[in-house]
Design brief:
Helix Hairpins, 3 domains, about 65% helix
Length: about 260
């Protein structure tokens, strides 16, 4: 039985991390399911009064629970699995799905699920196969910025606009977030009280930091991730022959190969 279990774990691990045709199809299916789940989360304010909302809510909870179990099974160790930020994000999201009435104040954390897309190996595999490996850093920075934008929007909506009509309240929260992150500051929608001011301050500071990071990823020269055997330097020019830190001869694989 243990041999069968080990064989199953290896097959499942290959589906999650390998680059074979079957693995790519499997990972692409998971990514499409992720996108569908994210769309459901983003449309939550519009759908929450519908009759089938809780049914979809619990179906997604079952899916996330199954995937958490699969990821724990293929993990090299329990400690490594628990050290992954995505593990705790999924656990928090699962809690909001299983207890929507009790944990509705934390529903904004569901937007962090967008980050799951960049954690899939298929994210980098597809960019490499499309010949766009140089855009990995840019794409990651874009996704991080989007995650922050919708997480803050969900937070603002939950704590400041939840009493309004779903569509109107969510749009107001999104409008406030974009205006604050971009430091436009029209002032037509503001958050009341000390808590509102602290939220605005945190949004501006973190948002500007992520925006600068995105700008850097777009304009800085493209570098590849390749560990120098001599000094361990990770980032090099794509056509580098020698390590800039120690001069060791490099053999960087061709990204287009």
């Amino acid at each position: 039985m243990s041999q069968v279990k080990r064989s199953f774990r290896e097959r499942l691990r290959n589906l999650y991390f390998a680059e074979s045709l079957a693995a790519i199809r499997f990972q692409l299916t998971l990514a499409l399911i992720d996108i569908a789940i994210i769309c459901f989360f983003l449309l939550g304010p519009y759908l929450r009064k519908g009759a089938g909302y809780l049914i979809l809510d619990y179906l997604i909870a079952v899916w996330i629970a199954v995937e958490l179990g699969a990821q724990m099974l293929i993990a090299r160790s329990l400690r490594r699995w628990l050290s992954r930020p995505m593990t705790w994000i999924d656990i928090l999201v699962l809690g909001t799905l299983l207890f929507p009435q009790l944990l509705f104040n934390f529903a904004f954390l569901r937007a962090l699920r967008i980050w799951a897309i960049t954690q899939r190996p298929i994210f980098k595999v597809m960019l490499r196969r499309l010949g766009k490996a140089h855009l990995i850093d840019v794409a990651t920075a874009v996704v991080n910025f989007i995650v922050f934008l919708f997480t803050i929007t969900g937070f603002v909506y939950t704590f400041f606009f939840y009493g309004e009509n779903g569509a109107e309240g969510f749009i107001d929260a999104f409008y406030f977030t974009v205006a604050t992150v971009t430091t436009t500051g029209f002032g037509d929608i503001t958050l009341p009280g000390t808590f509102g001011k602290l939220t605005s301050i945190a949004t501006m500071i973190i948002g500007i930091s992520l925006f600068v990071r995105l700008a850097q990823a777009i304009i800085r020269p493209h570098k590849v991730t390749f560990s120098c055997p001599e000094c361990g330097l990770q980032r090099h020019d794509a056509d580098a022959v020698h390590c800039k830190a120690c001069g060791h001869i490099l053999n960087i694989p061709d990204e287009g190969a």
